[in-house]
Amino acid sequence: MDEWSLVYDGFDPSQERLREALCTLGNGYFATRGAAPENAGDDVHYPGTYLAGGFNRLETEIAGRTVENEDLVNMPNWLVLRFRPAQGRWFDTATDGLLEYRQELDMRNGVLVRHLRFADDEGRRTRVTQRRFVHMDNMHLAGLQTTFVAENWSGELQVHSGLDGRVVNAGVERYRQLNGQHLRVLEQSSVEGEAIYLRAHTVQSRLRVALAARTRVLEDVEAARELVEEDGYIAEELVVPVVEGQPVTIDKVVALFTSRDPAISEAGLASRTLIRRADGIDELLRSHVLAWERLWRRFDIELDSDERTRMILRLHVFHLLQTVSMNTVHLDVGVPARGLHGEAYRGHIFWDEMFIFPVLNLRLPVVTKALLEYRRRRMGEALWAAQQAGYEGAMYPWQSGSDGREESQQLHLNPRSGRWLPDNSHLQKHVNLAVAYNIWHYYQVTGDHDFLRFRGGDMYIQVARFLASLTSYSHAYDRYEICGVMGPDEYHDAYPDADEPGLCNNSYTNVMTVWVLERAVEIFRVLAPYQRAELAEAVELRADELDHWEDITRKMRIVFHDGVISQFEDYAQLAEFDWDAYRARYGDIQRLDRILEAEGDSTNRYKLSKQADVLMLFYLLSVSELSELLAKLGYAFDEHVMQRTIDYYQARTSHGSTLSNVVQSWVLAKSDRARSWHFFKQALESDISDVQGGTTAEGIHLGAMAGSVDLLQRCYAGLETRDDVLWFDPVLPKEAGRVAFNLHFRGHHLRVVLSASDLQISSALTSAPPMQLGFRGTVTDLHPGSDVSFALD
Amino acid sequence: MDEWSLVYDGFDPSQERLREALCTLGNGYFATRGAAPENAGDDVHYPGTYLAGGFNRLETEIAGRTVENEDLVNMPNWLVLRFRPAQGRWFDTATDGLLEYRQELDMRNGVLVRHLRFADDEGRRTRVTQRRFVHMDNMHLAGLQTTFVAENWSGELQVHSGLDGRVVNAGVERYRQLNGQHLRVLEQSSVEGEAIYLRAHTVQSRLRVALAARTRVLEDVEAARELVEEDGYIAEELVVPVVEGQPVTIDKVVALFTSRDPAISEAGLASRTLIRRADGIDELLRSHVLAWERLWRRFDIELDSDERTRMILRLHVFHLLQTVSMNTVHLDVGVPARGLHGEAYRGHIFWDEMFIFPVLNLRLPVVTKALLEYRRRRMGEALWAAQQAGYEGAMYPWQSGSDGREESQQLHLNPRSGRWLPDNSHLQKHVNLAVAYNIWHYYQVTGDHDFLRFRGGDMYIQVARFLASLTSYSHAYDRYEICGVMGPDEYHDAYPDADEPGLCNNSYTNVMTVWVLERAVEIFRVLAPYQRAELAEAVELRADELDHWEDITRKMRIVFHDGVISQFEDYAQLAEFDWDAYRARYGDIQRLDRILEAEGDSTNRYKLSKQADVLMLFYLLSVSELSELLAKLGYAFDEHVMQRTIDYYQARTSHGSTLSNVVQSWVLAKSDRARSWHFFKQALESDISDVQGGTTAEGIHLGAMAGSVDLLQRCYAGLETRDDVLWFDPVLPKEAGRVAFNLHFRGHHLRVVLSASDLQISSALTSAPPMQLGFRGTVTDLHPGSDVSFALD
């Protein structure tokens, strides 16, 4: 291991699914899990994962027909590359005479390298080195270069290079009772003697997919070539003469297109044309590495910490950029919760943008804008959903399918009890807070008025209108309330023994609703008068609507108990939970929901959280911002209340969510840097150590990965974008040493270097107007080409 | 007729195809020609025109297969609405007892209104009023509302409302020997009792298209409903009781989706879902009209001229905005030369952007940016084409097909001689000048650095590199030359009796190449140092490349003769043409190419032009800009040379191109405002009067339409965007009276009012930084919220 590589020595079958997920290569358009291509005869095919048009656990009645939507469909497997000396058995990593095995994910270059040696039954030893990449510049291309050295024999090497359209969705055990067959191969053929071609479509969404694969022997040797075909499968078998000790290299390049791609005539034609024109692998690698170099220039975070910390941080950036990248800007894709790395959550879009935006906004806002456009194009569905539910405005769903429809499960299985239980997660209306929060922060970082006018503004206002329509006015309190919702803490979806699901006055939801409504009013203020008029016209703003929203921002009910912010109304009435007893009894109590349900009990009865959603407020808002907001509502709040609240929920959280460590680390940064650093390191381990015991193999946790990166910048550097100012207020733990990274803010290209003693910020020479830089309450102008430094105490 | 409506009284079968084109309704996504829907049984079906994936006159060998690309495919016809009293004959506008007929294209509201009265064989008289629209806000929707009044009878009215998938491409006579069958219907059915549904795909490009149509009787009457099906055709027949004198209204709403659409699961599902949710026609009309109101706010040009001039100007804006609109921003579409209004040129993309950009850039740059993205996504094809042709950089084709491949015809037919002739129009490399010119002007108007950095910059540099690679250095002259090309004047594609096609030193090409290379150097200057380095890295800029380009800008050869700029090298040696003799012999000599070829002669032998492409220089560049450019090359140029050049080519031009009147009007604006106005009015008549005698029916001439609008702003107001300044230098003909319009420039929202005596410019209150405003050589700062006025002499 070095700080740029994730290295595995040895082939451990029990760890392979985890390693495959962590060694996924992707470019935002398609991804390939780090599978061993020579094992392609396995039952389960999931090396090519791709976001498509939609599948759904439950068949749905839509427009009078039963449809099974497909949101995530595995693409045909292009990795298939089997080999054997002469007429031996095809080599199989998992079962055959493996002498050496080493796998290295080279993150700087975006290349997965494998070294292996094996001996066959006749004692012939062969050394194999393989480089694999999914091209970051030309998103339609991927390559697999395999070099063979016959160590103690000469003769014929047989290589089988295929395209497998018989793949199914089978990567997640518990989904296997669902229909996993989403591809139908329509056509397969040889192309011009050195390539093969396969065209398929997805069964429901009718997305057409075409791949063409070219297999070349690099050295100037005569290789016999034969076509092998089965239903839905096509391959070429090459017979290559090898001489003891002399390397032979086989290059496989694949071109992939779908019917959704722009600038094509037809996907099949596009794939065949590109494979004919594509450069050789060495040239492709050169342009691929350059594309990564450009990304690392923007995204790398240097820190003087241990090598493993640096490596994992890069791993998190790497997987983020493989999921959303410059290539996604022109695609209609959102942020899948599990990356393009596995099938869990079936490709649905949750609220993970909220954790990813801060990292991307400040480096490639063109990408975050595209993600907002993804939401904007689904506003029609959200408007319709709100109307159907009796609300106003646009209600984005908790789990969003391909066309923006609600895809939250209605039942879920507790494997511990074997019971299917009603699932109320569609009540997590707070996903709408994330949509609005992200629009506003995109605008804050870029100052992009045009987006606000034409695409972001109406979306924001419709979301704000929905949130306002969630509130009801209580004469008793002279306050607004929100009932019948769930906060992000999924351990509480109802009051104990209640007939109806949902909670009242979830503090996270109520506070952030106030925040969103305040910004809604501000949007009308930052737009020019004629723009304001057009926005009001577009959303059919009612005369009294802004006044009503202002009223909510003065009268929303927030509940406190024991001097802390309550997670929701009547939280104080819940029973204390006997943590020690359960820890003693069960050991791992991350999934208390399953444990209690199996006991006939319920998390709803206790003061316990999967993730303490009140603490999310401190993650999203600075103390000063939150204090102002609550003061306007007439509630006293200060650092002491915050600290008490943190301590209170810290003691009552099971950390069942991967995001929980990020939030915990965050909220402790001011008061207890050492513990904060501890949670930060915990957050880093989430996926690489698969702390949830198996979930990473089903896809990485993208929100937690991005959140860990964001901890360094927004939390430890104390970075905040507010009121057109870029603020800093560092609280760097001493373990981090010196931290340096690059940022973009309103046309400025900034270099930030942070140490225990000072904070240095320089702005590169550009034509941008001066920007406002804030340091602990004081704002100064920063001009392009200048730098500034602040002493830290 | 009023200034907002194009009105036709009476039904003239000989004029119907022209009227259908001019009454096309569209929203950039799909369009519907102004056909009479009750005549849907006609042989030729072309009411739905849509840009799809590609078809081609000549079958092409691509990637080892013969393909027939589809670039323009007619969509299924949704307009079908036939009617008859009781058991009479279905009414047919063209043949039956028509008593009154009036058709009105209401441009303010984007609605086509038809009023008709007819009597059947039994003397039953019925009055019909029909409103039709293609929704400008929800691009997937269109509506047709028909109100019947039985004037002298009561009984049953039968209405037949269908979706016809049997449409072919047959709108252009001379293409009819080609395969016109591009649609195959895959599925048709009834949907929930009040709608019908049809799904088809295009044969080669495999674009899937789905339509669902809902037909409702508005009044509360019981209407019997029956399904009618044929292969590829589905309809509902309604029997509606009517009472003498009482209106009955039938609303037909259609939802259309294709497999290229974002935010859908599957096109068929999307169309069925939307038709179930769609508002009623009155509500749809309200939102449609609002969308048009927003467009007119930006695009309307007021002038105190005659009503017809005002009406035609609006007609031109109207058809421009129906072809490219806010809806095209998220589609992968270019500017089709004939709008979405007909099948001529088979949907290929030429250089028309050049004439359309000035109108759109200054009002909705988000749309021009999307059009540049269309080119950018095809840069790979252009890089490949240049390489194949032995050039460097990116070579965009003269006629661009769906995936950016060259689609220029290789043969064309002279109907006069009956001969098929080689067609060299692919030598019009000048389309690349247009691509570069448009990138630069988009940047000038918006100051959008990010576009320049990420998408526009490399495209610009690759085009500049291609143009530089077109040049060769002549030691004899110590000059750079460009040979083997054609200018925009299609009457000259070779030297007389030459073996090879192409000309040397076409002045338009050479001068504009210098201009493009100058701006290429400037792009590197306006970018910040680190951005510059990244751009150089992305395009692999060679160390000496910019110096080489600078050298070309000092040493390009431009040929002069008789004190004027020569159209190309050795133009002076060509014979003078006997204009009078040919006018006498042939009358209409717009197509001299066909006349001469039929005589065994050739336009290549004469000093004559279809459009004088030298004059295009004066259209694109101001005198001062052109003088500076030529002075740097060591050529003397001033207003006198320009005037002589104008006069020289004026006398030698046949005006065979619709763009010619625009350019003529432009170049005369300074020296002869009255004649300029005359050509302006000629330009306005091009399509509405079908001056080319039949071509408008095959699609409007979008470049000429936009060019006529641009004449008012850039020419008569003397507007120029150069060196970050918005310049004005008005030369308004007195016939125009007062002219007023709105503009956007670098975040400023401007109102321009121009009269014979003064020019007033005001900038609305926005948060934009001050902009630079130039008036006849003097630059001042203009702040938002302020105005300025200049006296004109």
Task: Give a written overview of the molecule.
Two copies of one chain form a homodimer. With 793 residues, chain A is α+β, with helices and mostly antiparallel strands. Chain A is 31% helix and 25% strand. Chain A has 20 helices and 34 strands. In chain A, the strands form nine sheets. A nine-stranded antiparallel beta sheet of chain A has the order 1-9-10-11-12-19-16-15-14. In chain A, strands 20-29-30-31-34 form a five-stranded antiparallel beta sheet. The first copy, chain A, has a four-stranded antiparallel beta sheet with strand order 2-3-4-7. In chain A, helix 10 packs across helix 12 and helix 18 runs parallel beside helix 20 (702-716). The first copy, chain A, is globular. The two termini of chain A are 36 Å apart. In chain A, 55% of the residues are buried. Residues 43-67 of chain A have low confidence and may be disordered. Chains A and B meet through helix 2, helix 6, helix 7, helix 9 and helix 11 of A and helix 2, helix 6, helix 7, helix 9 and helix 11 of B.
